[in-house]
């Protein structure tokens, strides 16, 4: 029994020092992700985009109907007509401009609000992914030159697209 | 002789497989307190916690036996009481508790989310009434609207807000609890409760 003790001790020392060396020399776990692709493929973003599109269409429908009224009155008004019709035309014109501005402001605020909701969720899921996969660095390539290129082996974009959509649908919590 | 040995070995294997499958399908029988703990343990899949910073959502699927065990607060339950209470609840509804709290810290979520006093009262008003319309349950292609809703006020004594909800049950299958938030600025929050996890529910011990 004792004759095995020496070689076993040497072997275990060698193995543990090897493991320690590997742990110290191995670099941090790093990957990059194409955020623009993740954003586009995020199903919540796609759903909100459809909502926004529908509300854009409703706003445009309202503006179109005001424009038709305006054009109808405009055809009846001539420069020589100082009467009620001209006054009505001016009221309609003001109303149209006002409604157009209000709708544009509303839509722009709505788009910003929806975008914030998308990023609140995406940021959380990206953070959870990095933590869950034990990454030291998960670098976001926004297509603006932050990361010019990289080996495809370090690209985890597809994994992340799958992950964020699963998380959005309430799975894997 | 050799033939008999191999047949015996096969029979033994089959018996072991049967015993194993019976052991896997037979649910545990638990006392009320342990039953409640089992249901509330997120590892058993009936409670889903989801963080979308700065908020944390805690969604608990509540089987009727769990509700009875919690309401009765007894060490043991008589069988006829359980039958009676089950009948009161019926089996048309799925019950849930949803807690919305801060992802970090102990600040009350309403105080944390409101930017001013007006928004604070808007939030209270929203969760008291209008939010009911923003909760629903997805089951396959079916959507169940919330039919029972209660905002359990704690007057900011706890950091989270608590909602008790019930939805019409549309058969069996995985359920996705959905909150389409309108005021907390986190968007749609979903949590899936798998039917397989519901099937694994233990039985409530009665006498």
Description:
The complex is a heterodimer of chains A (about 170) and B (about 210). Chain A has five helices and two strands. Chain A is mainly α. Chain A has one domain: Skp domain (Protein Binding, DinI Protein, Chain A). In chain A, α2 runs parallel beside α5, α3 (about 45-75) runs antiparallel to α4 and α4 packs across α5 (about 155-170). The mean pLDDT of chain A is about 85. Chain B has about 210 residues and is an alpha+beta fold. Chain B has one domain (about 30-205). Chain B contains seven helices and ten strands. Chain B has helices at about 1-25, 30-40, 65-70, 80-90, 110-115, 115-130, 195-200; strands at about 30, 45-50, 55-60, 95-100, 135-140, 140-150, 160-170, 175-180, 190-195, 205. Chain B has an eight-stranded antiparallel β-sheet with strand order 2-3-4-7-6-5-8-9. In chain B, strands 1-10 form a two-stranded parallel ribbon. The longest helix of chain B has 24 residues, at about 1-25. The interface between A and B is medium-sized, with 19 and 17 residues.
Given as residue ranges, the uncertain stretches of chain A (5+ residues, pLDDT < 50) are none
Strand order of the largest sheet of chain B: 2-3-4-7-6-5-8-9
Question: Which class best fits the helix and strand makeup of chain B?
Answer: alpha+beta
Helix content of chain B: 25-40%
Task: Describe the structure using short key phrases.
heterodimer, A: 173 residues, mainly alpha, two-stranded parallel sheet, B: 207 residues, alpha+beta, eight-stranded antiparallel sheet, 7 helices, 10 strands, 36% helix
In short:
With 173 residues, chain A is mainly α. Chain A has helices spanning 2-25, 35-41, 43-76, 84-132, 157-168, and strands at residues 30-34, 137-141.
């Amino acid at each position: 029994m004792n004759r095995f003790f020496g070689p076993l001790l040497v072997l275990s020392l060698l193995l543990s020092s090897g493991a320690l060396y590997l742990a110290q020399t191995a670099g941090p776990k790093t990957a990059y992700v194409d955020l623009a692709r993740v954003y586009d493929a995020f199903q919540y973003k796609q759903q909100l985009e459809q909502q926004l599109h529908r509300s854009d269409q409703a706003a445009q429908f309202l503006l179109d109907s005001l424009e038709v009224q305006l054009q109808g009155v405009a055809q009846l008004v001539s420069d020589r007509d100082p009467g009620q019709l001209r006054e009505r035309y001016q009221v309609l014109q003001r109303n149209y401009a006002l409604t157009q501005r209000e709708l544009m402001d509303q839509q722009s605020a709505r788009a910003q609000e929806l975008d914030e909701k998308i990023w609140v969720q995406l940021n959380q899921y990206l953070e959870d992914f990095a933590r869950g996969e034990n990454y030291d660095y998960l670098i976001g390539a926004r297509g603006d030159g932050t990361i010019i290129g990289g080996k495809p082996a370090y690209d985890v974009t597809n994994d992340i697209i799958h992950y964020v959509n699963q998380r959005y649908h309430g799975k894997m919590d | 002789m050799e033939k008999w040995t191999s047949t015996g070995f096969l029979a033994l294997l089959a018996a072991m497989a049967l015993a194993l499958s019976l052991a896997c399908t037979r649910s545990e029988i638990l006392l009320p307190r342990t039953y409640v703990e089992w249901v509330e343990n997120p590892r058993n899949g009936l409670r889903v916690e989801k963080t979308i910073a700065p908020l944390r959502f805690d969604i608990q699927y509540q089987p009727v036996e769990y509700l009875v065990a919690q309401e009765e607060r007894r060490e043991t339950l008589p069988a006829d009481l359980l039958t009676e209470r089950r009948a009161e609840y019926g089996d048309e509804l799925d019950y849930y508790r949803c807690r919305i709290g801060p992802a970090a810290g102990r600040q009350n979520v309403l105080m944390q989310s409101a930017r001013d006093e007006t928004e604070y009262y808007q939030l209270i008003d929203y969760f008291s009434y209008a939010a009911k319309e923003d909760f629903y349950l997805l089951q396959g292609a079916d959507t169940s609207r919330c039919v029972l809703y209660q905002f359990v006020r704690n007057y900011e004594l706890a950091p989270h807000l608590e909602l008790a909800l019930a939805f019409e049950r549309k058969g069996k299958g995985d359920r996705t609890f959905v909150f389409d938030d309108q005021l907390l600025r986190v968007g749609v929050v979903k949590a899936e409760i798998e039917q397989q996890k519901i099937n694994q529910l233990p039985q409530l011990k009665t006498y």
